[in-house]
Amino acid sequence: MSDTFVNRRSLIAGAGAAAALAACSSTTSEPGQMPSASGPVKLSGSINVWGGVPPENGPKELCDAFMAANPGTTVTYTRFVNDEQGNLKLDTSLQGGTDIDVFTTYSMALLAKRIGAGLGMDLTQRIASVPELAAYKADANPIQNYVAGGKVYGVPAQTSPTVVLANLDMLKAAGITPPTKWTFDEYREVARKLSQPGKVSGSFNAPFAARTILGPDAWYAKDGKSSNFTDPAFRKELDLQVGMQGEQSAMDMKTILAEKLQVYTQGPFLQGRVGMINTQLFLVRYISDLKQFPHTFKTIALPQPGVSASDDGWNVGAVGDILSINSKTQNPELSWALIVFWMKNAAKYMTKGGRLPSLPGSETPDSLLSQLLGADMQNIYDVASFKNVLFERKNKIIVDTKFAAAAEITTLNTQLTQEVLLGSRTPDSWAPEMKKQADAAISKAG
Amino acid sequence: MVGDLAPAGAGPRRRRPTGPGGVSTRAGWFFILPNLIGYLAFTAVPVVFAVGIAFTSWNVVSGLGGIKPVGLDNFVSLLTNQQFWDAVIRTFYYGGVSVPLTLGLGLLLALALNGDVVGRGVLRLVFFMPTIANQIAVGFVWLLMLHPTSGLVNLALSALGWHDPPGWLTSQSAVIPALILIHVWGGVGFQALIFVAALQSVPSELYEAAELDGANAWQRFWTITVPALMPTITFLLVMALIGQSQGFGLIAFLTQGGPGSASTTLPYLMYQNGFQFYKFGYAAAIGLLSFIGVAILAGAVWRAQRGRGLQS
């Protein structure tokens, strides 16, 4: 069991540490040199970096800055599409000996597969040697990284808490004071009030109750050898989904499937067809793009609904953009130097692309927000609410550690939940069927 | 050939036409070499490899070193898995309706377009257009047309008095019929085009002779047109069966095997196991069983048409 705590204190502490290290390193090494036990190491050569973020959304500028700070080095960034085919392309390229030095993984389950196949270099010692990366050490408490056999193989450059984004104009029109803390049932009540049958659904989706209640490895029994879908938390989530769909306070599955809204979640929110959405932060890229998605309302960020008045539960967001070094790289020093640079400077270069960095570097919450929300943020967003939700609250982000048959279970969950929401399966039969099929898949996965 | 019948040494001396290692043979090999290399590299070797990995457990990420032989485990697992049999039934339903329907409508359309119809050339082009249209664009158009409440199809059905029309792509019972509709619409033009070409090669004297003998239109169709088209029907049927066993693009784009698993046919199940679950041995086993199934069906079609052609 592990988690990630992101709050203002840790961000400010991180910023302080980064500034201290930057000051320290500026006195001990020249640009282009890495401190080591035997003295500064001159960086040179070329490396290839594969990532899923389009170069123009930050990686190009970041790689250019690295090369400028390290004359004589060349970094080539290649974008792969972070979908099934794109990840397979990266995997086969890594296996086939394509010249890749640093690669990015966007899910812990996939990282586990890559590490299991020996594609990633052991970074345990390197991570331990950089003070700012202490949170990602193998023995960190709480664990915030994928740990295999006591070793760690990557560092997450992004943290992405789940939040509720809401249409502030709709909330005001319904006379609702934006809550700073709420439960699943209170969320449902607000969604009900925002709903206008046949026109507006109060919410796009129901809260992700099961994982909020259960935390990491929610799908698995403690020993990891069977599934956990008969836990009442899953029934709670299903009841919320069915109930909210039934009373039209959440968008119905038929409409979601008919318009492929599971892929284009931003659509109904920006068209004013739903009042709220449980989502990660990537949605701000669309909200800020008034040219492509014109809208006049302001968006407010609200915390993810919690288990009870006294228990916020776990945040079902994720740590992501996990940077690893190919175990076959010819230039591990330069690769590692880039990763450290990336971690320390992601705040500066990647935030504007909608990615909240794991380390704030020298950025403050205000400067991060201005990059995240864009130049027009005062007109588009309730900025103070974002500051509160992202930096002033303690978001306990889930970091899973068990991944047996994870892809199969994801598909199974989607299929059976769709069947319930489309009316061809009873809610009572969901848990036994999920357990039966998930147990079989886990058993086969060994 | 005349040359073969002529006595040795008779007639003008000619360069040997072909022979092992001769210039012409080498030139022939030279011409087919690019295609042969492509075939070996991108078809033959992968097919043999796929057959091999059907008997292994392999997740690709672990590379060739991660291939573990498992004997018949994948096949046993498949044949005892309800999801597999559900996918088999869906594939038969989807293919069993869409293939004959496309073929039949293609033939009817061809017969219409083969007659003296005004604007025949333009109509042929119009009906052939879906075949060359971008599949994603076609998918998007159908997605809009089949929307349960605002789609043209259901608006039309409602206007005709059907108060509760199907949810099409969002309904577990109507998703396969919806896919059949799209498939037939997309394939009928191509089939008609091939049929038109075949119809034009049927000797008109046969129809004239039959007419003189007093055969009516149905008898002429059944005794001349159908036998004359038998090789074309066989070709199109076998190609359609092969296409059905490989095609998953429409399903991947429109339904991702859903709602629930209602449109998870064998090709999509294979894709899901390979590309989503990284179970490439298992996916290859699905592919191999599909291949065997299609080969049996194609063999049956071939046997069934023997002796029914015009020449026979």
What does this molecule look like?
- The complex is a heterodimer of chains A (446) and B (312).
- With 446 residues, chain A is of the alpha+beta class.
- Chain A folds into two domains: 3-159 and 320-363, Periplasmic binding protein-like II (D-Maltodextrin-Binding Protein, domain 2, 3-Layer(aba) Sandwich); 163-313 and 399-445, Periplasmic binding protein-like II (D-Maltodextrin-Binding Protein, domain 2).
- Chain A contains 18 helices and 15 strands.
- Chain A has helices spanning 8-28, 59-69, 84-96, 108-116, 124-128, 168-173, 184-194, 209-214, 232-246, 253-258, 266-270, 284-288, 332-349, 365-373, 377-380, 383-392, 406-421, 427-445, and strands at 3-6, 33-34, 41-42, 45-51, 73-79, 102-105, 147-148, 151-152, 155-160, 163-167, 201-203, 274-279, 299-302, 318-325, 395-398.
- In chain A, the strands form five sheets. A five-stranded mixed beta sheet of chain A has the order 5-4-6-14-9. A four-stranded mixed beta sheet of chain A has the order 11-12-10-13.
- In chain A, a hairpin with a 2-residue loop joins strand 7 and strand 8 (151-152).
- The longest helix of chain A has 21 residues, at 8-28.
- Chain B folds into two domains: 1-53, no CATH class; 72-305, Orthogonal Bundle (MetI-like fold).
- The longest helix of chain B has 33 residues, at 82-114.
- Chain B is globular.
- Mean pLDDT of chain B is 88; it is low at 1-10.
Descriptive labels:
heterodimer, A: 446 residues, alpha+beta, D-Maltodextrin-Binding Protein, domain 2, five-stranded mixed β-sheet, four-stranded mixed β-sheet, 18 helices, 15% strand, disordered N terminus, B: 312 residues, mainly alpha, MetI-like fold, two-stranded antiparallel ribbon, 2 strands, globular
Which CATH class of the largest domain in chain B is shown? Mainly Alpha
- Return the domain count of chain B: 2
**Second-tier CATH architecture of the largest domain in chain A:** 3-Layer(aba) Sandwich
Largest interface: A-B, 32 and 30 residues
Computed Rg of chain A? 22 Å
**Number of helical segments with 4 or more residues of chain A:** 18
State Rg of chain B: 25 Å
CATH superfamily membership of the largest domain in chain A: Periplasmic binding protein-like II
Largest sheet of chain B, in brief, is: 2 strands, antiparallel
- Report the structural category of chain B: mainly alpha
Order of helices and strands of chain B: HHEEHHHHHHHHHHH
**Distance N to C terminus of chain B:** 26 Å
Domain module count of chain A? 2
Q: What name does the CATH topology of the largest domain in chain B carry?
A: MetI-like fold
Strand elements of chain A, count: 15
Main sheet: strands, sense, barrel of chain A: 5 strands, mixed
Based on CA inertia axes, which overall geometry of chain B fits?
A: globular
Through-space gap between termini of chain A: 20 Å
Strand content of chain B: under 5%
Query: Could you name the CATH topology of the largest domain in chain A?
Result: D-Maltodextrin-Binding Protein, domain 2
